[in-house]
Amino acid sequence: MKATQRDFASQAQRAARQCTVFFFCGPDEAGASAAAEAIHAMLPDAGERVEISGADLRRDPVLLGDEARSTSLFGDTRHLFVRANGDEAHDALATLFEGEGEACPVLVVATSATDKSRTAKLLANRDDALVAMFYPPDLRSMTGTVRDLADGAGLRLGGDLAERIARASGLDQRLAKSEVTKLALYLDASPASPQNADITAWEQIGAKTEEDGFMPLVNTALSGHIRKLPAEMARMRELSLNPVGIALAFERRAAQLAQLAARLGRNSDVNGFIQSEKQARRIFWKDERDLREQLRIWRGKRLDRLVARLTALHRHLLANSQSGEILLAQELTQIARAAAAAAK
């Protein structure tokens, strides 16, 4: 069974009843993770969550089958949640299918994987598996997602509040959902008791926009502004910005650049292209200058290498939280130097 973000919502309930393996992939890691959590909520009896890394499965492909067919300490139900990179889980899933006996649900979120990867091809034609592919949303589609989330929470959003929340979340569905949930709690809203929400209410509890947090650092590094980087790194430490959160912001911008580069194709008129994207409301006007500058730098193989490095950085930060700031500073310095060299 296959799905994309366009038809995932309509297929999710059936997949949760019918499938035991769920593979979420594509360049929008936030969307894939949100979809995995949605399936988890729909499972008839999800039980205990057991998390396994893709690296562990690559080293020991038998581990997945052993865990999927074992019971929890107290005999309760369970499900497995795997975060993998690329095809790290392929051999483990193949081994799982070769085993005998009933297995618990397995949810895999695979960064740097697509519906054309080996793992996706292994699963796509199976009736007991779902392959769901997610592309980065643009501002318009994320604004629509925020409105859907608000409707489900009993919120009636006034003015351009949905777009502001989409912007502040960096087009990350998980962060957008968190903002909507906080706003619903603040206003005591529910589907049974809807409440109106305006900018004033959200400003009381909402997160600051990424312009106040991650994005100045993202734009400094990706635009190759090496002289500004030390000040931005100092600001990161002063504000205690989360290194993993910063890495996610870089990944989202890289995914956005990949999407723009694909639409741009061989067209050399970056200025005209960015202008048309702004007019179509696929990018926000405040991002226009930075995207124009970065799209000239990060295209083709250089952009592919950037995405791979950011994925590796994210993985290293999760595994080495104690030295997160040092790892991040080293990698961002290398990225800024590469951008500066390409911009000359």
TrEMBL record:
- GO CC, alphabetical: DNA polymerase III complex
Q: Which SUPFAM superfamilies match?
A: P-loop containing nucleoside triphosphate hydrolases
Name of this protein: DNA polymerase III subunit delta
Q: Is Nucleotidyltransferase there in the keyword field?
A: yes
Q: Could you say which residues form the signal peptide?
A: none
Q: Which domain of life is it from?
A: Bacteria
Under the heading InterPro entries, the entry gives:
DNA_polIII_delta (IPR005790), P-loop_NTPase (IPR027417)
Q: Which residues form a coiled coil?
A: none
GO BP of this protein: DNA-templated DNA replication
A single Gene Ontology MF term assigned here is: DNA binding
